[in-house]
Amino acid sequence: MNLTILIVTMIAGLGAGIATGLAGLSAAAVITPMLVTLLGFNAYEAVGISLASDVLASAVSAFTYYKHKNLDTVSYTHLRAHETGRNLVCRLLLEKKKNRKY
Q: Which of 34, 45, 40, 43 is nearest to 7 (CA)?
């Protein structure tokens, strides 16, 4: 592995970690431009790599919350049920409006 690639990759990872931790940004916002401009990756490959790193970071975070008993699954299920009910009501209202004769 080339030393330049290693250094750029480490800087991209450090920048993504700081941006994600402090500002709540996706790592894709930092890693993708660095991979494309500095390392010459194809844009699709760079987006895939950065999204894969986001998925991995989210999975580790969720596991850490679960391990420390900070994961409230009851509130989440109530939230999802509320969203589903709201979506159903909105869909019914839109259908009713669409079928109305003017």
A: 34
